[in-house]
Amino acid sequence: MKRMMKSGISFLIAVILVVCSSAVCSFADEPVSLTAASAVLMDAKTMQVLYEKKPHESCYPASVTKIMTLLLVMEAIDSGKISLEDTVVCSPDAAAKGGSQIWLREGESMSVDELLRAACIASANDACCALAELVAGSEQAFVKLMNEKVQSLGMKETHFDNCSGLDDDTETHLTSAYDVAVMSAQLLRHEKIKEYSTRWMDSLRDGATQLVNTNRLVRFYEGATGLKTGTTSKAGCCISASAERNGMHLIAVIMGAKTSNERFEDAKKLLNYGFAGFQCITPGVGQDEIPDVRVIKGKQRYVKAVLDSVAPVTIKKENADKLTYKINMAEDLYAPVEKGQKLGEAVFYSGKKEICRADIKALCAVEKKSIAYIVCRIIKSYCAYDFTSKTY
Question: Of 187, 243, 284, 381, which one is least surrounded by beta carbons within 10 A?
Fold first, then answer.
C-alpha cells in the first residue's frame, strides 16, 4: 500500500512539474501579457511592428477616431489652407454634439488654436465638428476626406462615419489596432501636434473652462508625446499612446480594454517592452568596401560607386552589433552612365533575416566615347609622340 501511495504521489508531482513547465514555456513565448482585445506596438519612424495581438481585428475606435481628424486639420494648417489664428464660429451642428465637449454655444467664436486644445486635451466632440466644418465646409464633406485619407494610407480595416467617434447610431464606424497605429504615425510627423497632445492641463474662455488631458500617461510616463484616448460602451476603453526616448518614437495601440486602468497599464507594458528591448539604427557600409565599376566604351574606364541613403530600422538590442551585409554589384557597364544611376545594392541582415536594402549608385556621369573623341585622342597622342626618343 505504501509503495502504491509513494508511486501515486510521485506521479502526481511529475504531472504538476510538466504542467508548470508548460505554463512557464508558454508565458516565456509571449513577451507581453495584455488584457486588451487587440494591440499593436509600432515604431513611428520606421513603421515597423514590434508587437501585435489580433492587429487586424475589426473594432470600434471611439474618440481614437480624432487622430484622423487632427491629421487632416494639421495638413490643412501646414498647407496654408487654415491657420491657428483663424476664427471659427460655432454652427448649430457643432453645438448639438453630445459626449465629451466644451459646451460650445451656437454663434460662439473660438480660434483654431483653442479648438485644437479642446480636441486634443479634453477630446471635445463639438470642437472637432467645428474644425471639420472649417476645413471642408461640413462634417459630411470632412468625413469624405477622412475616408479618402484612409485609402491613401492603405488602412484596409477602417471606415469612418463621423469626425468624433460617437458610435450610438452606427455599425460601420470601424478600424483596427494596426490602422490606428498607421494614422498615429502619420499624425506624429507633424511636430506641432505634440504642443497640444502633451499638455496635461489648460483652460479656455479666460479660465472659465478647464481642460484636463484624458490621457494620464502624458503626466506620468517618461517621454510621453500623446496621443489619444477613446471610450464608449461599444468600443470599450482604447488608447493610442506615444512616447519618445533615446531616438525612438513608439506607438502603443490598445483596443477594447475592459477598464480605463487596464488600457493605461497595457499601453505602459507595450512601451516599456519596446524601449527596453529594441533600438533604432541606420546600417552602413565602408566606402572602401564598395568597388568601382568598369565602364565599357566610356571616356573614363571606371566609375566610382557610393551607397545611397539607408532607411533606419528597428531591431532587438541584442542583435544590434550582429548585423551583416552583402554587396551585389554590376560587373561591367556600357557607357553612357548617368550620375545617380543604380550600379548595385547592399542587403543587410540580422542573422538570416533580411532587414533592409539600399541602392549603390554612380557618383558621377561617364560619357560614351564618340568617333570624334576617339579621333581627337589619336591626334593628341600622335602630336605628343617623341620620334627621336620613341617615348611620349
Answer: 381
Q: What is the DSSP string of 275-342?
A: HHHEEEE-----GGGS--EEEETBSSSEE-EEEPP---EEEEGGGGGGEEEEEEE-SEEESPB-TT-E
Cβ neighbors of 144 (< 8 A, separation 6 or more) are 136
Residue with the three cell numbers 519612424? 45
**Interval 140-198: pLDDT, tens:** 999 999 999 999 999 999 999 999 999 999 999 999 999 999 999 999 999 999 999 99
53-94 pLDDT, tens digit per residue, is: 999 999 999 999 999 999 999 999 999 999 999 999 999 999
Output the nine-digit C-alpha cell for 265.
497599464
Burial grade of 368 (CB within 10 A; 0-12, 13-18, 19 or more): middle
> 176 — alpha (psi -120 to 50), left (phi > 0) or beta?
beta
CA-based diameter of the chain, in Å? 120
Contacts of 280 (CB under 8 A, 6+ apart): 43, 45, 46, 247, 248, 312, 313, 314
Instruction: Name residue, grid cell 485644437.
Output: 116
**Residues facing 146 on adjacent strands:** none
- Which residues does residue 314 pair with via DSSP β-bridges, in sequence order? 280
**How far does Cα 372 stand from its chain's mean position?**
55
Find the DSSP H helices in the chain.
2-29, 66-78, 92-95, 112-122, 125-136, 139-152, 177-188, 194-197, 217-220, 260-277, 371-383
- Cis-peptide into 227, omega within 30 deg: yes
pTM above 0.85, yes or no: no
Q: Are 273 and 251 in contact (CB under 8 A)?
A: no
**Residues designated as active site:** 63, 66, 123
